[in-house]
Amino acid sequence: MNKLYQRLIEFLLKDAKSKAAKRGVDFNEEKFVKKHEAVLPIILYYFFIWVLGWISPGILKVEYLLIILLCLIVRGLNHYFGWIRIMKKD
Known about the structure:
Low-confidence stretches: none
Largest sheet: none
Order of helices and strands: HHH
Radius of gyration: 17 Å
Helix content: over 70%
Structural class: mainly alpha
Number of strands: 0
């Protein structure tokens, strides 16, 4: 799953680079990757919930879904802005 996620980001990066080159716009690769690493888990979560709701609608509880979504949003914001950093000890 992690490989698929990284390949999706690489595909989006390659596509964005080619579009920026066609338009002649300056492209910041680091910012693009950072933004997509923050947003893609939320998009994939919505897709997963949509498929799960289509397969078996009675299994989903709204409260749990919103808590998970809130956690993903906070994780994405933290990943993008870097508010909380985990320091490694030497």
